[in-house]
Amino acid sequence: xxxxxxxxxxxxxxxxxxxxxxxxxxxxxxxxxxxxxxxxxxxxxxxxxxxxxxxxxxxxxxxxxxxxxxxxxxxxxxxxxxxxxxxxxxxxxxxxxxxxxxxxxxxxxxxxxxxxxxxxxxxxxxxxxxxxxxxxxxxxxxxxxxxxxxxxxxxxxxxxxxxxxxxxxxxxxxxxxxxxxxxxxxx
Length: 187
Prior knowledge:
Blueprint: E1 3-9, H1 17-28, E2 33-37, H2 59-69, E3 73-77, H3 87-96, E4 109-115, H4 123-135, E5 139-148, H5 151-154, H6 164-186
Parallel strand pairs: 1-2, 1-3, 3-4, 4-5
């Protein structure tokens, strides 16, 4: 049985280092796991309960929810914008948290990782993502983290998948997420 891991990236920029980390995760997925990089967070309208009505949910939100419902686990990559979570990522979490009590995270394992230019690698934003996803119903794996500082210089000429240290850390993170997701699927 294959474990499906849905990767969400909190940066819309095509050359984003967080997107590159997600691409590396797709390549480095362990045997028995598939990492799907979700495309389309930029198409989501801002969450508004008035438009979140059964039968008329915006197509972009319905697509995200369907992908999330079919996932066994989540891998979220967050940069840090002005010391906190990017709006596009928070908006996706808001859409996935509804309907209240039956959101798509539904006790599924979630790991948050990322990179940022600063010396801490975006930990403030990543901590905010963990908090938000936990409140939204995800089972946040607090002890599985990856925050890579200095993204602009570290990845200026190297894709994260070609950085031996980052690839090893990402492989370990994926292995641990896969293990937790496998336990959840088997239960």
